Amino acid sequence: MAPPPLPPLSPTSPPLASPPQVPAPTTADHGSGAPSPDPGGHAPPHPMPAWAADSVWYQIFPLGYFDCAHANDHQGPTRSASEGLARLGDDDTLDHLVSLGVGVVLLNPIVESDTHGYDTADFFEVDRRLGTTEDFRAAVKKIHARGIRIVLDGVFNHVGRNHFAFRDVRDKGQSSKYCGWFHLDFSDGASSPFGDSFGYDAWEGHADLPRLNLDHPDVVRHCHDVARFWLSDVGVDGWRLDVAHEISPAFWRGFRAACLEAKPDMVLVGELIHGDYTAYVAEGVLCSGTNYQLSWPLWHSLVDRNYYELVHSLERSQNLYGGLKLLEFLGNHDTPRLASRLGDLAGRGGHELALGGLLLGTEGMPCLYYGDEYGMEGWGTKDGGEERDRDLRRPPPTDPTDEQRRRSDACAALLALRRRAPVFSRGAVTVASNSNEQMVLARSAGEDGTAIIAFNCAEEAQDGLPDYCSPIPGWLDGSYRGELAYAGGTRLDPVPRATVAGGKLKVEGGIPALSVIAFIKE
To answer: Are 114 and 160 in contact (CB under 8 A)?
Structure first.
């Protein structure tokens, strides 16, 4: 079945323009008492390409985005160019991305796989449910022509049971020349849940995902060949590396070297969930990683009405990972949709509060999960099987409702502010003051100025922060013009002005309920 057409642009979307390349941050004077861009003082990882560091990312799960069948028998017809990945190069798709100011599209697995994309069958071919490699190669050229880069999801920890090497082991047993590619058990009585006469190590016990032996030189060579093919031959710009934290940094060092041979300005972003990110986002290893440790409090602080949770996590992230440019997000293909987590709060201001925290209040590279700009919903299920994550990976709306357009327009406005005022993307973040339901963040970036963002997740308007809150630092004293404001899901016009003096923030007319307001110091 052909997927429906992609959603049209909202009539109120900003004018189309290729995402600008913002100059890299400098260490210029940031004002008396203002923080430096690297409060943690950590040594930087190997050079992050400016195109990645300065961009807003947009994640797409192609097998869901294009409404593909769950299972792939590797014999069915190939998706036509009018239905699959090739449509990423269509004007409607690219117009929407450019209207948001997206600079990087992150694609979850696109190679031939058995089901969900992480059970690879052939690393060198696009999944037939999505089209052909030639279709994708043509789309890459069109995407690049609009000033957008492309990063692929690389799964190098494990493969599917139909990968050629594991299929050879299944057919030939101990006589297979690929036995060393996996962690196998041919002892008496060994078996697998699929009835094989041998056992094997699989990712987190999932027998359909046999784990590769990444210490074997032929496996390492195979992974490097895959990386170089997509970077050099097809023309993508980098890799998001699945379960990177479960693989030795030594492997990633070699992988990085192979990628740099193919494309010197490529980027490597590891999926990092647990542990110390600095072991992986380090000189000679990876450029960046997913900041799961900040993702949860960005939205949960709203549900619990507890900004202390977010403040703690922001300051912890700065202390541990200051100087690293991590990938920040509110949700992805493995987590419930933002709108579902927020519940009815999403339509009453929670959507703008959460996006404001991500897009204006973090120092990393913000990444939107497709459809979240519209407020798509989806919980997923813990029951496993075909339906486990389908609800998180459905196609985007083809004819957005008025409410979906309103939410998308709010997302676009926040992103337009980032582009218009680089302090909101380059400035070092300081928690100026907070209570449970109010928070003031400050950003300072030398010649790009100083900004503050006021958040109020309470159901009532406030004159200011409660008296018991810490005083706002004196280096923020001054007058501020309002740049963008949302309250209860409605954009405010005119945007109120504000002053900071004597440790207090005073907003003209008060701080509305369920609001986020961005100001720039005059």
So the answer is: yes
